[in-house]
Every structure is written in structure tokens, then in C-alpha cells.
Design goal:
It comes from Fulvivirga sediminis. The chain is of the alpha+beta class. The protein contains 11 helices and 10 strands.
Length: 289
């Protein structure tokens, strides 16, 4: 298998990267990038709105069937590939963190959106008809501003993008959680901490301390909202990163173990097999996209 999965930058996908955003009709985008069906990851944030077509999209080893009205959000670093029908269409938006934050001047504000937490399932949302209409209208407005309006008012493009993101977040939060409870907010903070600290912090007590709650309370909230313990949530993130590293490049198993703070290659292999049913070598050899 191909063990090296490229990281695509914004400049890979657009003629000019000075403004750090690309938006296109999805059918046209696929035609221009017809060779990109191989597994790859991005250094930028990625949005796809599906208005028609079918097929499937694989994100971080999770397979999602495509239906009209879906919107996909992908954070930098996630691995994906796809197989779409010939009539698939919609919109694609790629932008980097600097483009977004240069407008809001809020560090890491984009990572506060629930769909950009790095969890594949949270980034795939089915929009109801009214919201889909609003999202497609905003997407077309952004497309026209970026590609056909001269001069381009870049602050306006950022405003449109922010409107789209906040509109989906507002609607999705109400649909999935009603009023955002303190326990739900705690889970999201916990997951954001895991995203940055999973390689160095393995114990729920370390995260509980940062969140100003007891380990027991954190565990109860995780079981309530996620169906498993706080420790399992941490381990799941370690396993995901191990899978990414195993298919992304030619690092040895020992190098991957050390990069994930395992002091012993044998312990890493046992840990990985316990959670996946395969050894790292078997996963690397058998992984099929």
C-alpha cells in the first residue's frame, strides 16, 4: 500500500494563495482535481455542502454515505478520501486559520465550533430544508464575491463565512442538545484539551484539574454524553492518531510509539491491538480505503 499520504496546502488547490480561501461549485472542483481521490489530509479547514448526488466519504476511517442536504466540516490533519456519483454537486470552501482569525482577532476561536472538534461524526450534519437554502445562498454569495466581484472586499467574504458557520452551529446545537447545558459545555472543553494534550496527558485526573472538576464528575458526564468513560475518550484519541501515523508516512512502528509518548514499542503494540483487534503492522498492511 502507499504509506505516504500527502498534506495538501491551500496553495495546492488555488491559483493564488494570498487570500487563503478557495470556494467553488463542487462539481467543477472535482473536475479540476479529479486525481485527488487518493487518501490525503489538509493543512486548512474544509467545508463541503452537498446539494445533489450520492456516494460516500471516508473521514478518519469512518465511512459516511452522501445525501443531498449534508454539510461536511473537516479540520486540518483529518484524513479523507471519497467516491462520488457523476451528478454530485454543491459547494466546497477551503480556508486557513490565519484568514479566519485575521478578521476576528480571537485566537483559536474557530476550534470552538462543535463541528470542528476533530471528531469525524460531529463534522457531518444533515441540514433541514430551510437551513440548506440559507447555507446555499450564503455559499453562492461567497462564491461570487471571491471569484467574480472586483475589487474583492475581503472583510465581506469573512463576514459571509462567519455567518454560515454560526448559522449551522446555532441550528445544530439546538437540534442535538437543546439549551447547551453546563455538562455538554464541559465535554466540549474536555475534547478540546484532549486534542492538544493527548500525547502528554493520559490521565483523566490531569484533565479534570484543568477543568476545575473532580475526576469522578468528569467520568459521570462523559458516560452521560458519550456513553463511555473519560479515560476511554483519551485512549480513543491516541488510537486515532496512531492510525493516522500508520497510514500517513513511513515512520517505523518504534518511531510512532515514541511520538505518542510510549516508552516501549511492545507496550504500544499491545495497546493498539487491544483497541483495534490488530497489531500496528497488521493495520498498516491491511488498511484499505
Amino acid at each position: 500500500m502507499n504509506k505516504h499520504i500527502p498534506i495538501l496546502d491551500s496553495c495546492t488547490l488555488t491559483d493564488s494563495n494570498q487570500n487563503k480561501i478557495l470556494i467553488d461549485h463542487f462539481a467543477a472542483y472535482l473536475k479540476k482535481n479529479s486525481n485527488m481521490v487518493f487518501p490525503h489530509r489538509h493543512s486548512f479547514y474544509h467545508i463541503v455542502v452537498f446539494t445533489q448526488g450520492s456516494g460516500y466519504h471516508t473521514i478518519d476511517f469512518e465511512k459516511f454515505d452522501v445525501t443531498p442536504g449534508q454539510i461536511y466540516f473537516m479540520a486540518p490533519g483529518q484524513i479523507h478520501t471519497w467516491h462520488f456519483s457523476d451528478d454530485v454537486d454543491g459547494y466546497v470552501i477551503n480556508f486557513d486559520k490565519g484568514y479566519y482569525e485575521s478578521f476576528l482577532l480571537l485566537t483559536d476561536s474557530i476550534d470552538n465550533f462543535s463541528f470542528y472538534n476533530g471528531i469525524a461524526q460531529d463534522g457531518v450534519i444533515q441540514l433541514h430544508s430551510e437551513l440548506l437554502q440559507q447555507v446555499t445562498t450564503l455559499s453562492e454569495s461567497l462564491y461570487q464575491q471571491v471569484n467574480h466581484t472586483q475589487p474583492v472586499y475581503w472583510d465581506l467574504t469573512k463576514t459571509i463565512l462567519l455567518h454560515l458557520l454560526m448559522l449551522v452551529e446555532q441550528s445544530h446545537s439546538k437540534t442535538t442538545t437543546g439549551e447547551l447545558s453546563s455538562s455538554y459545555a464541559l465535554i466540549k472543553k474536555f475534547q478540546r484539551l484532549i486534542e492538544t494534550d493527548f500525547a502528554s496527558s493520559r490521565l483523566p485526573s490531569e484533565y479534570a484539574s484543568q477543568l476545575n472538576v473532580t475526576p469522578n464528575h468528569l467520568n459521570i458526564v462523559c458516560k452521560e454524553h458519550l456513553g463511555h468513560s473519560a479515560g476511554e475518550e483519551i485512549r480513543n484519541r491516541i488510537v486515532l492518531e496512531a492510525k493516522r501515523l500508520l497510514v500517513v508516512n513511513t515512520l517505523s512502528i518504534t518511531e510512532i510509539a515514541y511520538s505518542l509518548a510510549f516508552n516501549d514499542n511492545s507496550y504500544f503494540s499491545k495497546f493498539f491491538k487491544k483497541h483495534t483487534g490488530m497489531t500496528p503492522e497488521e493495520f498498516r498492511k491491511k488498511r484499505a480505503w
